[in-house]
Amino acid sequence: MSGYDNIRALADRAEITDLFVSLGRCLDEHDFDALRDVLTEDVVGTTPGGTQEGRDALIAQARANHQDYDRLTHQFNSILVDVQGDTGTVRAYVTGSFGHAASPLPERVLTGLYRNQVVRTGAGWRISELTVEPKFRIERGTAVAE
User: Fold this and answer.
1) Is 50 helix (H, G, I), strand (E, B) or coil?
2) What are the Cα distances from residue 50, in Å, to 18, 19, 25, 81, 121?
3) Best CATH choice for the domain 3-144 from the list 3.30.200.20, 3.40.1080.10, 3.30.980.40, 3.10.450.50
């Protein structure tokens, strides 16, 4: 691999990592319309809320599952990006905390394994497939097996 190819691979990985973290920012800040810059038009999403096909359907699901919470944090770790030309995969653990302004204690905490497919578009990298495999769920201090 040439020096240019190495630099391009690093730039792609950085852009894809930023894209993934932008997904969490959009949810945390209730900026659901900005998800249009994160997802492809034909994205398929499988989350604890069900499977949705198409960007508008997935955005509607995200809005329905997040809009009632004033306090949201999506924390990403163990992010692994693999790029193969104009496609790639992202694997990461995400912990989402959901709460209300009146209390610093979360209503629920969810941890899931995200497995995403990404594609390079004319506008940059976008998520084309989003799969969330639930691992842990805590509701008001009670662990719920998934």
Assistant:
1) strand
2) 25, 22, 21, 25, 26
3) 3.10.450.50
DSSP string for 66-127: HTT-SEEEEEEEEEEEEEETTEEEEEEEEEEEEE-TT-SS-SEEEEEEEEEEEEEETTEEEE
CA dihedral 99, 105, 107, 112 (to 10 degrees): 90
Percent of the chain having pLDDT more than 90?
A: 87
- Structure confidence by residue, pLDDT tens digits, 108-125: 999 999 999 999 999 999
Tens of pLDDT, residues 58-104: 999 999 999 999 999 999 999 999 999 999 999 999 999 999 999 99
